[in-house]
Specification:
With 187 residues, the chain is mainly α. The protein is 56% helix and 0% strand. It is built from 8 helices and no strands. The longest helix is centred in the N-terminal third of the chain and has 25 residues. The radius of gyration is 30 Å and the shape is elongated.
Length: 187
């Protein structure tokens, strides 16, 4: 079995927790709950976490599938250098961001989820993983193997068929075939 890529799971967990934190913050601000200032913080923190976690990291092995529209966010996250590439920094950043969310009921779930994501990022950092951007490939024409000319056209002719006398089945042959037993039966 292959090695578990913890950062991939942490990324999904953190993105989901950012959305949950954002939703809880919107509910807290819209409802004008007691301590709604924590909900306003949760809206800002949830938005920040979603923007930070939207770009996926390149996998160590196998194919890496980028999210739709990820490239714009990848450029921004990549520009911060080691602050966003290092998973120790992300783990402690998420742990610090989630603390104020624990003071209001509407944002507690997002706080707990972000804390779990922080722990998963800490495991990823201990295992030596780091964030690598998925950049669009520059397609190099490889002649007959990979260029636009290598697209094969569908066949123009139908597949070969047996001769007409082999295709026609007579009623006699069908009735005879039904009674022929290739294995001899004895009493």
């Amino acid at each position: 079995m292959g090695k578990i890529e913890w950062a991939m799971w942490a990324n999904e967990q953190a993105l989901a927790s950012g959305l949950i934190l954002l939703t809880g913050g919107i509910v807290g601000v819209a409802g004008q709950f007691r301590g709604w200032q924590f909900a306003a913080y949760a809206v800002a923190a949830g938005t920040f976490v979603c923007l930070l976690e939207y770009p996926r990291s390149k996998r160590a092995k196998g194919t890496s599938v980028a999210r739709t529209g990820q490239y714009c966010f990848t450029v921004v996250v990549k520009s911060f250098g080691p602050l966003t590439r290092n998973y120790y920094v992300r783990a402690f950043l998420h742990a610090a961001i989630c603390v104020p969310g624990g003071f209001m009921l509407a944002t507690v779930l997002g706080c707990v989820c972000l804390g779990i994501a922080s722990l998963i990022y800490l495991v990823a950092a201990i295992r030596g993983e780091h964030w690598e951007p998925i950049l669009p490939r520059k397609d190099v024409s490889r002649g007959a193997a990979g260029g636009p000319d290598s697209i094969k056209q569908p066949p123009q002719n139908p597949p070969p068929r047996p001769p007409p006398e082999m295709r026609r089945k007579r009623v006699d042959d069908l009735e005879g075939a039904a009674y022929d037993n290739p294995i001899p039966v004895t009493d």
